[in-house]
Amino acid sequence: MVHALVSRRVVTPEGEREIAVLIEDERIVALKPVAELSPDVAREDLGNVALLPGLIDVHTHINEPGRTEWEGFATGTRAAAAGGFTSIVDMPLNCLPETTDIKALEDKREAARGKCTIDYALWGGAVDGNQGEIEPLALAGVPGFKCFLIYPGCDGFTSIDRENLELTLPHIARTGLPLLVHAELAAPIDSAAAKLNASGADWHRYATYLASRPDEAELQAISMLLDLCRRYRFRLHIVHLSTAQALPMLAAAKAEGLRVTVETCPHYLHCAAEEIADGATLFKCAPPIRSAANREALWQALVEGTIDLIATDHSPCPPAMKRLEALEPGQEAGRFDEAWGGIASLSTALPVLWTECVKRNISLSKLSQWTSGAPAELAGIAMQVGSIQPGKHANLIAFDTDAFATVTPERLHYRHPISPYMGERLRGVVRSTWLRGERVFHDGTFPGTPRGREYALSCSLS
Ligand SMILES: [Zn+2]
């Protein structure tokens, strides 16, 4: 049965239009002027509430199987649906086992089955010594690979040094899939931390944490990666870019024709180091949130196209790991060196971003390109999703751009409703989310049973 969603502000690749989106079964079948809609088609009129393509997060840490007490497919995908996401791509680490071979991929598929409110794909991992697993994982349907150039925070998923990376890159290049890299090198960080400790720096201060992860760590890593990209001709994706100082180098690489894409995150686009209180470890992430001037340069780079997309890096943990309180005698609360780095943000990303877009006069269509269109391209799912066009999945959200809401625990649907945004009044409220034509979130509720499924991806080796 065909039904229609009507809005004065349907966000299409051509901009905002007043149209009807016709849906049959799981897909968008047509876009029509409202006047041409036949009277016997059931319709829901959203009025001035905007209709956007569902957001796609290419950087989510679900942590299941193995660390389900941190998050999990059930809670993580509900939180995502409430935030306007209809697809996520899960990271290959912090779960147990880490997704670095076929057996682990199958374990994760088993863990996810039947629990997800939205659709998903699963990144594979590239670690020291698993180069023989790259092609099998690609053929088994991962959309790409993630690696770390620095200790990732948990044992088990090893960082990869230059030598091992060079053994892996020919395999990555053969798959044609992107390699996502956490681009920080250890040397500048180790020497910064040694200096800070020698001078008795106070680790309760955000300034100490910021100084411990200098821009230089990102700059050296990105410079090395661009070099390797030139040599091995693989698709390089820089995850969570924080330093704006890397932008000229990235813009030049793109102009040169290297296949490089770049993501940044809502927290780098909203927060500023100058405003983070000492002891406020909820803001700890790596690379760190930098200055307000740096934030403005990241926005500029999005507008200019040097940064391609925005991803959440939703990376939750149990509250105790944030060291907000001392849990045992002798332990101190609020130390940035001891707190887990990671910000849970699936439920807040869109209002955080929209609040900033309005300040800068950036349109909803532009934002949608960074949060749906470009992420779909990266994950290899752009044929199915990423925009409101006939033939695509009816993955849609009703977004009230003029409403304001204050972040409270009830609005977060994570396993642990903690957030650095708590108490903030943000612009924009997600009213409804539709996954393949069916409503999966509506004003704080989750109708229906979870029917999210994994994207069926295929890869041919060259
Ligand atoms: Zn991450």
Your description of this structure?
By secondary structure, this protein is α/β, with parallel strands linked by helices. The protein has helices spanning 73-82, 102-112, 134-139, 162-175, 186-198, 206-212, 215-232, 247-256, 266-270, 292-304, 349-359, 364-379, and strands at residues 2-12, 15-24, 27-32, 42-45, 50-53, 55-60, 85-90, 119-122, 124-125, 145-148, 178-182, 235-238, 260-264, 309-310, 396-406, 425-435, 438-442. It is 29% helix and 22% strand. It has a single domain (54-384, 404-424), classed as Metal-dependent hydrolases (TIM Barrel), CATH 3.20.20. Strands 9-10-11-12-13-14 form a six-stranded parallel β-sheet. The mean pLDDT is 96. The two termini are 42 Å apart. The structure holds zinc ion. Zinc ion binds next to loops.
Strand order of the largest sheet: 9-10-11-12-13-14
Number of helices: 12
Low-confidence regions: none
What class would the helix/strand composition place it in?
alpha/beta
Globally, the shape reads globular
Gross CATH architecture: Alpha-Beta Barrel
Q: What is the CATH topology assignment?
A: TIM Barrel
CATH class: Alpha Beta
Cα distance spanning the termini: 42 Å
> Based on the structure, what is the oligomeric state of the protein chains?
single chain
Bound ligand species:
zinc ion
Q: Average pLDDT value? A: 96
The number of domains = 1
Helix content: 25-40%
Quote the beta fraction: 15-25%
The Cα radius of gyration reads 21 Å
Most strands sheet: 6 strands, parallel
Looking at CATH, the homologous superfamily is: Metal-dependent hydrolases
